[in-house]
Amino acid sequence: MLAIALGILAQGVNVAVLVILAICIAASASFPVLMLSLFWRRFNTGGVVGGMTVGLISSVVLAMIGPAIRGADALWPLVNPTVVSLPLGFLGAYLGTVLDGRDMDNEKRFDAFLIQVHTGVTLE
Fold first, then answer.
1. How confident is the model at residue 95 (pLDDT cuts 50, 70, 90)?
2. Of 25, 48, 63, 57, the residue nearest 97 (C-alpha)
3. Which of 7, 39, 50, 108 is the most buried (most CB within 10 A)?
4. In angstroms, what CA-CA distances link 20 with 59, 65, 85?
5. Closest CA relative to residue 49, chosen from 63, 30, 35, 62
6. Which residues are within 8 A (CB) of 15 and not within 5 positions of it... i.e. 6 or more apart?
7. What is the pTM of this model?
8. Long-range contacts of range 29-37, CB-CB < 8 Å, 24 or more positions apart?
């Protein structure tokens, strides 16, 4: 339903711009979560939810008020809002992690996970 509504709003917009916006939305929602889950020992479920939510909402809102959708009436000057929405995704992930509290069991398993990620070797 949402995809249909967005498709109707995007009539007449250059396809290349729509591809840029799709990549922006995907990157802003998933890249902070991916990077922090690989390299930050304390990262937890609250950070995943916070990072994906803030990254997704900020990228969609900035795209909707930008020149790609609104044209000359744009409230936001950039066609590609990633320069702002990606750091907001990192901020949401950080705040979600801090507000959710520490998970000591998860932090204890992080070293084995890190070795598996970088080498492919599973430590049991």
1. very high
2. 48
3. 50
4. 11, 15, 14
5. 30
6. none
7. 0.80
8. 29/55, 29/56, 29/59, 29/89, 30/55, 31/55, 31/86, 31/89, 32/86, 32/89, 32/90, 32/92, 32/93, 33/89, 33/93, 36/90, 36/93, 36/94, 36/97
Tokens of 121: 């070797």
On the question of pLDDT at 53 being above 90, the answer is yes
Tell me the one-letter amino acid at 43. F
Distance CA 81, CA 47 (A): 22
Q: Is 5 helix (H, G, I), strand (E, B) or coil?
A: helix
Nearest 10 degrees: Cα torsion 91, 99, 31, 38: 120
Query: In the predicted model, is pLDDT for residue 25 greater than 70?
Result: yes
Residue 93's pLDDT is: 96
pLDDT-derived band of residue 124, with 50, 70 and 90 as boundaries? low
